[in-house]
Amino acid sequence: MRKRDVMLCAALTLVALPAAGQSPEKPESSSQSPRPAASQGKPVPPPAPRLKGAEATQPADPEAAGKTVEEIIARVNNEVITLSEYEKARQTAEEDAKQECQGRCTPEQLQTDIEDRRKNTLRELIDQSLLVQRGKDMGLNVEAEVIKQLDQIRIQNKLESMEALEKAVSSEPGMNWEDFKNSIRNRILTQKVISSEVGSHITIGDDEVKKYYEAHKSEFVRPEEVALREIEVSTQGKSPDELAALKKKAETALKRVQDGEDFGEIAKRYSDSSTKEQGGFLGVYKRGELAKELEDKVFNMKRNELTEVLETKQGYLILQVLEHYGEGQQPVDKVRNEIMDKLYTARLEPAMRDYLKTLREQSYVIIKPGYQDVAGPGSSEIQEVSAMPEASKQKKGHKKFLPFGKKSGASSGKSGGDTGS
Description:
Elements: H1 8-15, E1 38-39, E2 42-43, E3 72-76, E4 79-82, H2 83-101, H3 107-119, H4 121-137, H5 143-156, H6 162-170, H7 177-197, H8 206-215, E5 221-222, E6 225-234, H9 243-258, H10 263-270, E7 281-286, H11 292-298, E8 310-311, E9 315-325, E10 328-329, H12 332-361, E11 365-367
Antiparallel strand pairs: 1-2, 3-4, 3-11, 5-10, 6-7, 6-9, 8-9
Pfam family, one: SurA_N_3
Region (Disordered): 16-69, 376-421
Domain PpiC: 223-323
């Protein structure tokens, strides 16, 4: 069951990992730094980036002496990953492991999880940088989504203005406002790239759903439950004069769904809740897990039925019973979407490995000695390369991007097996 955490610290944890080399001072515009150009069929190394100083231990400008010089440990095309970003990501990985392991694993299991996460840190930073750069190459503009998400965080934390949110974010140790916004931006970009370039190619057939159901019937013996979606129009921080317009907004959203429009799409457009990005999906609930007045209402509703506009302390709420599961063995039609999600997730991981492998092969990645990533059992290392890697000399400077590797008959000679991404 997915529950919402509306605390600012949770939002900070979610987006505290800036994408590799994404300096907040960089403007977000269509005039992105180009990929390495072609020169006689060989990739040209990208120009040395400037990030809080230079790689040299002595600044060329005498006036720059005494300024902080960031150690660059990896370069991904025209972007860099610094030592401070790497160390921050490793610390975040440890904190995430501790939070997820609370009361569910032994100290030994926790330590193993921490070590696994930390040894994959550099790989994940590189992958994130590649995905963000790909999103920019695709011309994706997510500024509207960034603003909406910032405003949602503000509302969830009952802050009266964006300035108050900025102050709250900046008061967190090791966090600043530009990093916070940039992390949200990069996370949204990454999600859009994965959805467009990988997820859209994954299809699940009805025969596969039935086969999984027959092989895992015991998973679908359950108590009575309801799966809910929501549209929430927030009234937090609003004046009494604004309430009528907000209620009208909720009523308009309800009317559009009643008239046949998709609930998920209306939730994305009208809802102020963080669930809007998932089409309003709120979770699956047993009896006793909801407020009594809501429980009495939704457990007497059928699939796809809607509540009226409900007034709550947070705002105006519309609920839809996405599915009502009776007690006992659930029929396949009731768990079809759940099975499709399981199969989709199982396919997404290897598809992402193939995608990132292709993306990496078409990019310029250099890693400083001593920072190679072993990536755990079953995966190859991220290989350190020279300034003009021999393995890259046969590549063309500008290839057409192929989401799932080269077409059959390409001159690569590589199989679609395990990836070094």
